Amino acid sequence: MRSIIRVALIAGVIAFSATAAHAADTVTGLQPASPQPAADQLKPGLSVTYYFNKFNHTREIPEWAKYKDGVQGEPIAMLDYFVGDGDVLTSGRADHVGADIRGYINFPVAGTYTIAMQSNDGVDLNIGGKRVVYDPDVHRDRYSDLVPVVIETPGWYPLRLLYFEKQVTSTVELYWLKPGGGGQLDFVPAEAFGHIPGETPQS
Questions:
Q1: Is 195 left (phi over 0), alpha (psi -120 to 50) or beta?
Q2: CA torsion, points 128, 117, 2, 156, in degrees to nearest 10?
Q3: How far from 5 is each of 1, 119, 147, 173, 183, CA to CA, in Å?
Q4: What residue segments make up the domains of the chain, in order of their start?
C-alpha cells in the first residue's frame, strides 16, 4: 500500500500547486484541548466508530447513530488511505461504510498551517471546535481547497472527522504544510495523532 500512497502524494502535490489560487478563507479561533492530554494517557492514532449503511452525506452518519449502534474499529494510525476498491480504513468492509473518527492532532509550533484533504466520498473535518474541511457528499477522488489555519498555541487539539464511502472506491488523506515550510504539502504524520481509549473528545 505504501507505494500506492506515495504515488498519490506526488499526484496530490501537483494538483495542489495547480489549484493554489483556490485557497479557502483563513480559519482562526481553534481551541486547544484543556487540559492538555498527558503523555501517559495518549495512545497512537485516532479512534474510530463504524456505521454500515448506504450514506449520501456526512450529516447522515450522526443521524444514523441515534438509532443504530456503531462498531468500534482498530485505531487509525494516520489518514493516508488511497485504497481503490479495498477495505475502507480499518472497517474490514469495502462498501457502505460511515466512520466517526475522533482523537487529537498535535500542532508543534504556532503559526499558519495549510490544511487540505483528498477524499472519496464525503468528509467533514473539525479541529479545535472549527470546521476546517467540508466536502460532505458523494464524489470521485478530489482535493479540497487549501485551507489556511492559524494556530496561536502549540499543542494537542481535539479532532473529529466524519467520513463515508458509498461504493466501489475509497480515499481519505489529510495533508498539511507547517509554518515556514518549503511550499510542498505532505501527509500529517502518525506522530501527530493520538487518542485516549474510551474517551469521546469534542471538536
A1: beta
A2: -10
A3: 6, 13, 22, 9, 20
A4: 2-195
Residue 202 is which amino acid?
Answer: Q
Q: What would the DSSP string read from start to end of 126-147?
A: EETTEEEEEE-B--SSEE--BE
Q: Tell me which residue has cell 480515499.
A: 171
Q: Which three cell numbers stand for residue 12?
A: 496530490
Is residue 199 left, alpha or beta, with left meaning phi > 0 and alpha meaning psi from -120 to 50? beta
pLDDT tens for each residue of the chain, 203 residues long: 332 333 344 444 434 443 443 678 999 999 999 999 999 999 999 999 999 999 999 999 999 999 999 999 999 999 999 988 789 999 999 899 999 999 999 999 999 999 999 999 899 999 999 999 999 999 999 999 999 999 999 999 999 999 999 988 899 999 999 998 777 899 999 999 999 998 876 65
Residue 9 phi, psi dihedral angles, 5° rounding = -65, -45
Class of 2-195 in CATH:
mainly beta
Task: Give me the count of residues in the chain.
Answer: 203
Global pTM reads: 0.88
Give strand pairing partners of 125: 133, 161
